[in-house]
Amino acid sequence: MKHKRADDEAVSEIVGTILLLGITVSLFSVICGIVLSYPFSPSSPSTNLVGMVEGEYLLIEHRGGKALDLGTKVSLTIGDNMSEIKAVGDYLSNESKEDNLWGIGEWFVYQDSNITGKKVGIAVVDVESDSVILIETFQGSEGC
Length: 144
Fold this sequence. Notes:
Helix content: 10-25%
Largest sheet: 4 strands, antiparallel
CATH class of the domain at 47-139: Mainly Beta
Mean pLDDT: 85
Low-confidence stretches: none
Strand content: 35-45%
Radius of gyration: 30 Å
Oligomer: single chain
């Protein structure tokens, strides 16, 4: 005659617990894999830019915050004309370009005789974070 042990019923509870634990860990791993696979874009840089129009010059000064890449884009709208996209690095002084960044105290200088007396719209876009840093509209002055 076979003797039944008292703890035979506990084996099924242990197997059930291990299965539930395995399912939970597997499900958690799948969810983590899905969530963490989404690309997160960098936040926009905290930068203080000031723009102005003086005569036939459009000036934008970097007054503080994070230095920007020379590939930062400036979109210009002059009067009713469509926007022109300019790279910051093309309009900085050679001295300002040495560190490959647009930093504090450096000026973006764009000269165009068509801006005199016209409405000028600018938008500065950080390419790295794909975010607008500055957007302003000016009424060009008649001269200095």
